[in-house]
Design brief:
By secondary structure, the protein is an alpha+beta fold. The protein folds into 4 domains: 275 residues, no CATH class; 82 residues; 82 residues; 110 residues, no CATH class. Helices cover 26% and strands 28% of the residues. The strands form 9 sheets. Strands 11, 12, 15, 16, 17 and 18 form a 6-stranded antiparallel beta sheet that branches. The chain has a 5-stranded antiparallel beta sheet with strand order 7-6-5-8-9. Helix 1 packs antiparallel against helix 2, helix 4 crosses helix 8 and helix 13 crosses helix 14. The protein starts with 12 loop residues before the first helix and ends in a 7-residue tail after the last strand. This is Peptide-N(4)-(N-acetyl-beta-glucosaminyl)asparagine amidase. Keywords: Membrane, Transmembrane, Transmembrane helix. It comes from Marinoscillum furvescens DSM 4134.
Length: 653
């Protein structure tokens, strides 16, 4: 795993020789003084350590015995030189009993239920006494912990056959670190994990493929994503908490797998998309592992491993602006993600874009940035660029993404030009609003229907096609009447059907032979005044509905009666236009006096139908806000046919 232009142990051979000579004359207690003299970064670390300075100095003094040219001394120097910017959450000891209890349950569902219930109860008990704390690593790490970590990491690394072993630079960045991200630090887990999962190296050395070995490891760990945990537990899980509960966020699982792989001497890293180009959520993380010249990336769920995650996003033309690999050292000239390497090109095609600066007076204090849309923050910076004196250059940008070029100033991000979209073939499309020319726009949704990585969601529609609404006077439906058959489903809106049947029935149900019918709900009405037919829920078919357990499959009516009207709706995200909801349409413009980009309100109305019609400015972006409900919104533009064109999403016009 090549680390590109990483920050290394900045002590030249000349300086090392000088230090070595001076130590011979002055005694080993002076090692810290001379190392600090020739390393400004070490000096910064020790200054920030405060009362903990002596603990860090003890680490260098300890490894001086092995020689200042030894790999362990250089590894210690690497950790200390790059430690100043690192912070970690402190373990919440008050909640450790919850994780201990969860670990006693073998059944996944039982463990998840107990874990969530106990965690929620304990957090509520603590009330205002519940506090999360982040501390600088330089102020909390003890000498014995760092020494133990270095020794364990080095021994595991050396245990890998020399022909497959990572080089020293990769060892420092991706095996040596005592943590993966900002999770609570647990030094002891490295030793525990190496003892438990040492078979991983044996498997690889016996010729089992890297893919098969890692998948076997993931199966053994059995970590499962449960996003709802973050609503209860406010900080990242430690490695031991993750291994006990086996539930958490993607990041928690990634931190765990990276820690395990590093504990056995393998290069492993956290990879992430900080912000999708087509999502209301932030981004996504996974892990990468390298062994003997092979590199593979895995989602924590194991999904997409067959084709390889590195080719998965590219083959789908997914909207991936940037991919970063987390490392321990920092790039001092990077304002964004300083502890990361840009590896976007490993996952998708990339393009360089140059942007004019028509209205901003340049200052060397400014930082060029490129941002993508995030409806929580409006625009989220994902990378920095370069200023060549006349243009901004942004490198290695992923396609199928809408970008906004700007600069970071003391007052925040300022747009320097209009937004642009990189098409799948690399063509750049600019959006400069034309207020004089108007387009007709038909609006059906506030958020795109599907994105490439979740295109399978279209099965929600397909899986209910052929399904029947049946009525019977027998509980086993041995004789029944088909009130309506769904021949085709293409809408997320409620579908209202008049059955034209006046016979009376005691039972009704939705019947399908599909194993996973994605019917969200159905309702039967007595009349056009929407008076519901009431009854008790039955489920004579498809007792287990893996993804839709809340679906009402049938009703036992209170008394036999006609069923003149049925209304049903396919499982969906409810981002379609809803009658009587309050919608406001915004367009993107730039104030030519202040040169500030902004979202400008164009129209606000209460929907009278499931479609909205507008006359809007041409060649610009739009953002439809629902003030009544929902958390998912994204930008779109106008297609040639006057429909919504979703940038980064699948379009079905």
């Amino acid at each position: 795993m090549k680390t590109n232009n990483l920050s290394r142990v900045r002590v030249t051979p000349f300086n090392l020789s000088l230090i070595f000579s001076l130590i011979i004359l002055s005694g080993c207690s002076h090692i810290v003084y001379w190392a600090e003299l020739f390393s400004p970064r070490l000096k910064q670390t020790l200054a920030l350590a405060g009362a903990n300075r002596q603990e860090l100095e003890e680490v260098l003094i300890h490894y001086r015995k092995e020689g200042v040219l030894s790999e362990k001394f250089r590894a210690a120097l690497f950790l200390l030189e790059n430690m100043a910017e690192h912070e970690s959450y402190q373990l919440l000891n008050e909640l450790e009993s919850v994780f201990d209890s969860a670990s006693t349950y073998d059944n996944d569902q039982d463990r998840k239920h107990v874990y969530k219930a106990m965690l929620d109860q304990r957090v509520k008990q603590l009330g205002t006494g519940f506090r999360t704390v982040r501390r600088k690593d330089v102020q909390v790490l003890r000498a014995e912990d760092l020494i133990q970590n270095i020794d364990e990491a080095y021994d595991a690394w050396m245990n890998i056959h020399v022909s497959k072993r990572a080089d020293f630079d990769d060892f420092c960045e991706f095996i040596l670190p005592y943590k993966c991200n900002n999770e609570p630090i647990e030094i002891e887990t490295r030793k525990v994990f190496r003892k438990t999962y040492g078979w991983v190296v044996d498997s690889l050395e016996n010729g089992v493929s890297l893919d098969s070995t890692v998948l076997q490891l993931m199966k053994a760990v059995n970590f499962q994503v449960a996003t709802e945990v973050s609503q209860i537990y406010p900080i990242p899980l430690s490695a031991s908490q993750s291994i006990r509960s086996k539930f958490g966020l993607c990041d928690d699982g990634v931190n765990l797998l990276v820690s395990i792989l590093r504990s056995v001497g393998l290069v492993a890293s956290r990879e992430s998309i900080p912000q999708w180009g087509n999502s209301a959520s932030n981004g996504h993380s996974w892990f990468s592992v390298a062994y003997g010249g092979q590199e593979r990336a895995f989602n924590i769920s194991g999904a997409n491993y067959e084709t390889g995650l590195r080719s998965f996003y590219s083959s789908l033309n997914e909207s991936v602006p940037k991919v970063y690999r987390k490392k321990y050292s920092s790039e001092s000239d990077r304002e964004l993600y300083p502890h990361s390497i840009d590896v976007t090109h490993e996952y998708t095609k990339t393009y360089d874009v140059q942007v004019d600066n028509p209205w901003c007076d340049w200052s060397n204090s400014f930082v060029p940035v490129v941002s993508v849309f995030n409806f929580h923050k409006e625009w989220e910076p994902v990378d920095i660029g370069e200023w060549n004196g006349s243009q901004f250059k942004f490198s290695d940008l992923g396609p199928n993404v809408l970008y906004l070029p700007g600069i970071l100033t003391s007052s925040g991000m300022v747009a320097v030009n209009f937004p642009f979209f990189i098409n799948a073939d690399g063509r750049v499309e600019h959006f400069r609003v034309n207020l004089r020319q108007k387009d007709s726009l038909t609006v059906l949704r506030k958020y795109g229907l599907t994105v490439p990585r979740y295109r399978a969601d279209l099965q929600w529609f397909k899986n209910i096609e052929g399904g029947e609404f049946q009525a019977s006077n027998f509980p086993d439906f041995r004789n029944y009447t088909v009130l309506h058959k769904i021949e085709s489903c293409r809408s997320t809106h409620p579908q209202r059907i008049e059955t034209n049947n006046q016979n009376v029935y005691k039972y009704m149900r939705f019947y399908t032979q599909t194993s996973e019918p994605h019917l969200f709900q159905f309702v039967a009405y007595k009349n056009s005044a929407n008076q519901k037919i009431k009854g008790s829920v039955i489920n004579p078919k498809n007792e287990k509905l893996p993804h839709s357990a809340w679906i009402t499959q049938g009703l036992e009516l209170r008394s036999p009666q006609p069923i003149p009207i049925i209304e049903y709706m396919v499982r969906n995200d409810e981002n379609h236009i809803v009658k009587q909801d309050d919608y406001e349409l915004f367009y993107w413009d730039v104030d030519m006096n202040s040169h500030q980009g902004q979202w400008v309100s164009w129209d606000r109305q209460r929907a009278q139908d499931t479609v909205l019609y507008y006359q809007v400015p041409s060649n610009t972006l739009f953002w439809l806000k629902n003030h009544s409900r929902g958390k998912e919104e994204h930008v779109f533009t106008v297609s040639a046919s006057g429909k919504q064109r979703w940038l980064g999403f699948d379009n079905y016009n």
